[in-house]
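pasting for ref
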Amino acid sequence: MSVKIAPSLLSANFARIAEQIAVVQDAGADYLHLDVMDGRFVPNITWGPKIIGDLRPLSPLVFDAHLMIVEPERYVDDFRAAGCDRITFHLEATPHAQRLLVHLRSIGAKAGIAITPQTPVAMLQDIIEDCDNVLVMSVNPGFSGQAFIPRTFDKVREARALIDERGIDCSIEVDGGVGEKNARRLVEAGADVLVMGSTIFDAADPGAELRRIRALVSS
């Protein structure tokens, strides 16, 4: 599959959110990444289903929700109803990950599992067949603009080996500190989806920056 780029709306200017969504959509964004934080699993608070539901009419792009919240099983139905197409929750946030992955598929969402930097890929051995997406965090979750953790390259390679060994259709997504310096290496390691927040939205021309990164990883 060709690499997909998912601008993270957490880094966008919400006073101009419709305009910023239109800019990245016109520039060829594949997904819109939605970082959901609860102030408990991570030390930050962002948005819930109401705001996502309000954003949904602004774009036909895939809504890619990343739930950085405790007890995600309590809220996934609301996020699906709000318009999220891909819903990824953290392995570390629930004791019943396999059951929740199966439930996500049953309500029509692509089911994703995320792992923080200290969680080894080996922890996914018994649930990988129930995943449509594995999100490898390349920073500690909670805030944008953090420095990329180099160990991520190895973790992406490990995830790719596991998926290929099982022969399943599961994408690998990388989130945190992704930009010009590491995007191509991540794709070479096996990443399918690159989440970029400040890299795109802090640029003078977010659309041009997205197209430049796309050319970099596609060449």
